[in-house]
Amino acid sequence: MTENTLINNSEAGIERLLEIMRRLRDPAHGCPWDIEQDFASIAPYTIEEAYEVADAIEREAWDELKGELGDLLFQSVFHAQMASEAGHFAFQDVVRTMSDKMVARHPHVFGDESRDKSAEQQTLDWEAIKAAERAGKAQKGALDGVAANLPALLRAHKLQQRAARVGFDWPDASHVLAKITEEATELEEARDARDADALEDEFGDLLFVMVNLGRHLGIEPEAALRRTNAKFTRRFAAVEERLAQRGRTPSESDLAEMDALWDEVKQQEKQAAKRSA
């Protein structure tokens, strides 16, 4: 078998990818860029690839999703290769750990427990198992184990979920709405006082409560904000297109004109949605 037999075998699956990664990191013959990377330098790419997977799913770009999932898989392979070089663990240890975890967390599939339960009950069971796992890792607090470097909205959502499971939660969304009004008032007071530090603090409080409202309404905040970002991008592009038809750019227009065009775009989208319903 020549050195490149596995590399050139398109049917070799994960073993081919592992060998490609090993060769890329080879100190004598690998890629200089790949060789000089470490966990910290690669981590931002890992996060970026995860978001690109989410973006492809949101756009239902299934042809793109295959490639994005591959990019994300490669990040796992990259980290595992660096870990293997440092003597921490190998890729097969990653696979074994995840497989063991999934088997342990699904006793109703792989064990003796009954499958006769709702998805909601399974979620509760899942969290109970995870709580037992955290206890085994000496994580005593209810919020222990929520990664500090998660995106802020996602981390807020997870922190609130954890707190709610031990009873620290409002009974319904109406109480959260009242809290939003309270936090908005405090934000105004900080603005009027021209206290920059307090203003940032109160703005954060308002965002945190908005995340809590979403949780009570069954809305995932990251997904909701991504949807709104996409909507804003789409509508603003349509405004730019209409301005271009008039021979102008946004900088050559004014707020009144752009706002009127925005309303036109918004109304057209609503009418199109009604026709397709």
UniProtKB/TrEMBL annotation:
CDD domains given for it? NTP-PPase_MazG_Cterm, NTP-PPase_MazG_Nterm
Short name of any one Pfam family annotated for the protein: MazG
What Gene Ontology molecular-function terms does this entry list? nucleoside triphosphate diphosphatase activity
EC numbers: 3.6.1.9
> InterPro entries, per this entry?
MazG-like_dom (IPR004518), NTP-PPase_MazG-like_C (IPR048011), NTP-PPase_MazG-like_N (IPR048015), NTP_PyrPHydrolase_MazG (IPR011551)
Sorted alphabetically, which keywords does the UniProt record give?
Answer: Hydrolase
Q: What is this protein called?
A: Nucleoside triphosphate pyrophosphohydrolase
Which species does this protein come from?
A: Ruegeria spongiae
